[in-house]
Design brief:
heterodimer; A: about 230 residues; alpha/beta; Rossmann fold; about 25% strand; disordered C terminus; B: about 425 residues; alpha+beta; 6-stranded mixed barrel; two-stranded antiparallel sheet; 13 helices; elongated
Amino acid sequence: MALVEASRLAKTYQAGDVAVHALRGVDFVIEPHSLVVFVGPSGSGKSTLLNMIGCLDKPSGGRITVLDTDVAALDRAAAAAFRGANLGFVFQDFNLIPVLSATENIEYPLLMVQDWPADKRRARVRELLDAVGMADQAGKRPDQLSGGQKQRVAVARALATNAKLVLADEPTANLDHDTAFRILDLMKKMRDEFGTTFIFSTHDPKIMAAAEVTFTLEDGRLRDHPGGAQ
Amino acid sequence: MSRVIELAARNLARYWRRTLLTAGLIILGIVAVLLFVSVSGSFKSVMVGQITDAMLGHLQVHRKGYVASIENLPLNLNIKPKALEKIEQALGTMLEIEAVSPRLKFGAMFSNFTETTSIRLNAIVPEREAAAMPGLAERLVAGDLADGLVEPGKLLIPELLAKGMKVKPGDTVVLVATNVDGSVNGQTFVVQGVLEAVTGPGGRDGYLHMDDARSLLRLSEPEVNEIAVRLTDFGQVGAVSTRLRDALAEIRNPKGEALLDVHTWDQLSPFANIARMIDLLDLFIRIMLVGIVLIAIMNVMIMAVYERIREIGTIAAIGTPPRRILALFVAEGLLLGLVGTVIGTVLSLALVYALNLWPVSFAFGRQVIVLAPSIAASEVLWIGAIVVLVAVIASLQPAWKAARMDPITALRHV
């Protein structure tokens, strides 16, 4: 069973009187346990695509299913519930909650999104802190962590609820190359350890080389995949 | 829920200067309201206590039309002995009534043998007046009441008159009064005491014994024109006056018309209007408090939402249910309201306590009022509850906005 399946997926924005075609009929399939990258220049539609996979945006045309769910049909609350149950997010700017420590940031979705009991919560957070190599920084708040450390915490937070799919929009854009590669290695390790699928976007050629499956987007279309096949 | 509250507290601590400023505004509002309520309440209770305990009583019964012409102190609207007996019977059946004092009010000329002036007088039965007006004796500034409120052949005179006429206790004076039939009679009296002048009707009246008044006015029958009534519970004035009106409606004149009127203290004293003004001010200051809390919290919460748009986008994107986001911001407003209320209340109670330790006095007319502020626990709880409720209401709109925020737009916010 495919994890994500898109068919003739299109998205058009209205910018004043001008219609902006962010996606123009994109077809693709993403299998479970894969490490997928969407590459392309700015404005090629990467973020729009990730937003639609993440139930944050709805297509103007076509169809997209995630975990066999037609996510375009979900209303606001159902989409939030679906994201909370199945998806994890990693952001370019880390987006950790400033008033919470690394531990508490990882614990946040377990507590505020899903209602995990305290003992299970603590065990899960410990496991993830160890997995991302942040056990010794557990009590620090985001402003006391480096960029790479913040992104490690963000990856751990995305994995906390046993997400089947983690979406990362330009997760390495604010990191130096060494740190960026370490984060990519961490994603691979997490994929191997927890069986999670990672989909991320980048326009950095060195980073895209590290991915296992690459889709190239240009002007809202998948290059070399006119029919949309993987 | 406790986690939501904890997170809300941390967010408030994050912007501690703004939190402190907003909480400070709420504290200031609470202190202003509670202090005003306690001080104005104390002023009102002192004044009302003085008026009802020393002059008017809680209720008064008169012949119909007497109160309208009370400035002239007419003697042709006296209550005759037969009607008085019926009134006393009716009053005697009401358990809420603690004491009743029949009075005969009249005007006279007061002479110290060198000067003459007018005086308003209350003829009383001393024991009954003392029972109905326990505060009257406290107004004595010179003289002696050891042998009763006013002894036969003696007078209690108001302070202003005593000063103006240079009369002191023990001096002999003359009262000249016009009788009901128009003839004039004079009689000598000894000044027994001098009474402090107080605000309100009867506050500058003299007192003499009922028997002396009957002799001076040459009344063949024991007539009165006012019956002052004291209740066991001041709070029942309204209910008892209604029942008393019904009971006295049976007493009619020969034409079959109702003979009597019942007036409550506030219908007789101009201070009731001042009391109503104080109540109005009290209401306005409460409305101002609500306004302060509403604007302060709404402002701070709107700012909080605006400054944390990306954060809201993040928590919405990772699947936080909209109702939890709403709860998070409402909890911040609630905490602000609670903290302001608790600190404001503690500060207010401390100030009220201090005002009782070091009492504040001020002149009201010719009186010196000593304030003893106090505030009922129910009043404190009521005001606290209103503030907390308003704090929650004020944070609802920003919280609703946060909960409804589109995650993509929020995440793109710079």
